[in-house]
Specification:
Layout: H1 3-16, E1 18-19, E2 26-27, H2 30-82, H3 87-151
Antiparallel strand pairs: 1-2
Amino acid sequence: MDIYALLDQLEQLANSSKKMRFTNKILIDEDELLELVDQLRTAIPDEVRQCKRMLAERERIISTAQAEAERLREEAEKEVGRIINDQQLVEQARSQAEKIISEAEERARAITEGADEYARDVLRSLENMLSSQLNTVRNGLAQLESKEGTKA
């Protein structure tokens, strides 16, 4: 189940719970709360696995870009080696090879930066989501502990 849907259910549980008179505390059905916490525990590893898949995809993209850059570099070097008879052609070939290498390196750098930015955004999003969920669980536990303290 989607973590956000579970959080919505947790919020709905808190909003629909009976309020205690003369306090800002509420009584939450323990079974419902624990069921939602169990579902959150199940859903969080799914989100983490999804993040790991995205990071693996990032690594694949970077590897592909580096392989493509290496292939282009080797191709440019071979091209330079073939054209050695005429000095002007040699200079032209060197210039072209440097341009190809530069373009390949720039392309690899751009892909790497894009993949890094994407991974950073995904990890920040996951961090925010997990932090929010942790706070929600802590608040629920605090309310339960407060409820138990009120009974004693």
